[in-house]
């Protein structure tokens, strides 16, 4: 029973790490898009 609990904890931690990584990647992608929008907007002026 302890092994199954340990496996569940490892799976939960792995999912949490993946979720944090995906969130960080999405934030970086959105920040990159914001920069291109600002550059594009200033180029139109």
Summarize the structure.
Helix content is 96%, strand content 0%. The chain has 45 residues and is an all-alpha fold.
Account of the protein in words:
With 45 residues, the protein is mainly alpha-helical. The chain has one helix spanning 2-44.
- Beta-strand portion reads under 5%
- Report how far apart the termini are: 67 Å
Q: Count of helices?
A: 1
**Low-confidence segments, ≥5 residues, pLDDT <50?**
none
Shape: rod-shaped
SS-based structural class?
mainly alpha
- The average pLDDT score comes to 81
Write the H/E string, N to C: H
Number of strands: 0
Largest sheet: none
Write the layout of secondary structure elements.
Layout: H1 2-44
What keywords describe this structure?
1 helix
């Amino acid at each position: 029973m302890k092994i199954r609990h340990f496996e569940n904890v490892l799976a939960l931690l792995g999912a949490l790490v993946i979720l944090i990584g995906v969130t960080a990647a999405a934030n970086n992608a959105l920040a990159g898009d914001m920069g291109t929008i600002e550059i594009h907007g200033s180029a139109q002026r």
